[in-house]
Design a protein that fits this description.
The chain is of the alpha/beta class. It has a domain at 123-196: Ribosomal Protein L15, Chain: K, domain 2. The protein is 15% helix and 8% strand. It has four helices and five strands. It has helices at residues 28-38, 98-101, 141-146, 182-190; strands at 123-126, 157-160, 174-176, 179-180, 194-196. The strands form two sheets. A three-stranded parallel β-sheet has the order 1-2-4. Strand 1, helix 3 (141-146) and strand 2 form a beta-alpha-beta unit. The longest helix has 11 residues, at 28-38. The protein is elongated and about 120 Å long.
């Protein structure tokens, strides 16, 4: 039995039973509205790292102007690597330094060194500390220590010219084995004090 051809127009595919309708194409106006709502669109071509996160590579050995010649940033070896290495400011390349070329006297004074070596350290007493001193008792390092005017004898006792208002020196004081500053000595001599064994 022969098949007969159907006449008429074909139905669109969307008209078939069970077929889903194709989504409508988005217009330019819709894209513009979406851009206004969400801000600028992110594109792969616009992605770049943060500034400074990829520093420029140091190129070693590319001329003296770069500062990366010879050791190439690795530093030296030997004396220049050691902590505290190098020569002092007075080093003159091995020749006799300036401080040793000068004509010197024979011997040096050690008084400029710290107190613990050669300089004398005195126990200090001011004039106002002797305001209530008994003139019948001689002022010596030992009597000053007994009277608790000083804590230790050290290398000697030195009287300084410190004074306070209302604390005058008693007349007739006698001193022995004690050193004085110039102002203290003048004040004691004016007060009639006797100084022995200075």
């Amino acid at each position: 039995m022969a098949k007969t051809k159907q006449t008429g127009t074909k139905k669109p595919a969307s008209a078939k039973t069970g077929a889903k309708a194709a989504p409508a194409k988005t217009t330019r106006a819709a894209h513009a509205g979406l851009a206004e709502l969400s801000g600028p669109l992110l594109k792969l071509g616009g992605i770049k790292p943060a500034d400074g996160s990829w520093p420029k590579r140091t190129r070693v050995g590319r001329g003296h102007g770069s500062g990366m010649v010879k050791t190439g940033g690795e530093g030296g070896k030997g004396q220049t690597v050691r902590s505290g290495g190098g020569k002092g400011p007075s080093f003159e390349g091995g020749q006799t330094p300036w401080a040793r070329r000068l004509p010197h006297r024979r011997g040096y004074s050690q008084k400029a060194r710290d107190i613990g070596h050669f300089r004398s350290e005195f126990a200090v007493v001011n004039l106002h500390d002797l305001a209530g001193w008994d003139p019948s008792v001689e002022v010596t390092p030992q009597t000053l220590k007994v009277a608790k005017k000083i804590k230790a004898l050290r290398d000697g006792v030195k009287v300084l010219g410190g004074s306070k208002a209302g604390r005058a020196l008693p007349p007739g004081l006698r001193f022995r084995d004690v050193t004085f500053s110039n102002s203290a000595k003048e004040a004691l001599v004016a007060a009639g004090a006797t100084i022995e064994g200075e």
